[in-house]
Amino acid sequence: MKIIHINDFDKQYINEHISACIGNFDGIHLGHQALIKEVLKSTLPHAMITFNPHPIKYFIDQNYKELTPLDTKIELLENVLDYLIILDFNKELANMSPLDFIKLLKKNMIFEIVCGTDYHFGYQAKGNADMLKDYFKTIIIPSIYKDNTLVKSQTIRNKIQNGDMKEANNLLGRPYTIKGIVCHGSHLGHTIGFPTANINDVVYLLPKNGVYMTITKIHNKFYKSMTNVGFNPTFNKKNNIVLETNILDFDQDIYGEEISVSFIELIRDEKKFLSIDELKQELVKNQEYVRSSSIKLN
Description:
- There is one protein chain.
- The chain is α/β, with parallel strands linked by helices and 298 residues long.
- The chain has 2 domains: 137 residues, HUPs (Rossmann fold, 3-Layer(aba) Sandwich); 117 residues, Elongation Factor Tu (Ef-tu), domain 3 (Beta Barrel).
- The chain is built from 10 helices and 16 strands.
- The strands form 4 sheets. It has a 6-stranded parallel β-sheet, with helices on both faces. A 6-stranded antiparallel barrel has the order 11-12-15-14-13-16. The protein has a two-stranded antiparallel ribbon with strand order 6-7.
- A hairpin with a 2-residue loop joins strand 13 and strand 14.
């Protein structure tokens, strides 16, 4: 897959006609996957057009946490598409009229476009999907529902923030996964017999605070695990959220290594325990629940 960053809107980057789906694609969920599948039907090279940073980061909140940051999108798409076209979302693009945005796409040899019914573009989102039909071969994909629920990034975000990982994963079409580099923590987990792999400075949207059944990928191998998201109130004297994963049947030094943690199910909400013994008893129970689960490691 060729990755093309378009930051000079007067320049032509692509020299062959292509078929492209277009949008923010935060999550690459079942709705997004429907657009990708339609693009793959084309006889032209297949592409996705997306934006970086996410427009919400530009317009509303620069600390907005995405479901799929750019590197995750690349990983998910690298064996699927011929092109990933990333438009720099800056002041010039934000102020671009719908017609000028269409000219930008045509300049870069976009011949076929696939989008959703709610796709809007251009200054103040004045352009819509129907407008594209006058300039491109355009396929508009109707809204996708799963189990009577409209598949949308915001719906998935809400479910993740409520700890409803089963429903979030159902709409994503895969387990919600957070990647990061293992760093040193307080090592208190090791001292009580439950060592954890800690990830700080998480760039993804975090699930609600609590303990989760997870699957952890290390060096292309998968392990059952349980992950705490929260302030670790029994030990933590600071106000920083931590992501700590206890990996079952694993005992290797992985500091500085990248791991992937996939969230399967909320086991319990965050709780402050009155003693270390009470905490250990609960962790044993949580670990046995994970160990006895039938989750597939893949």
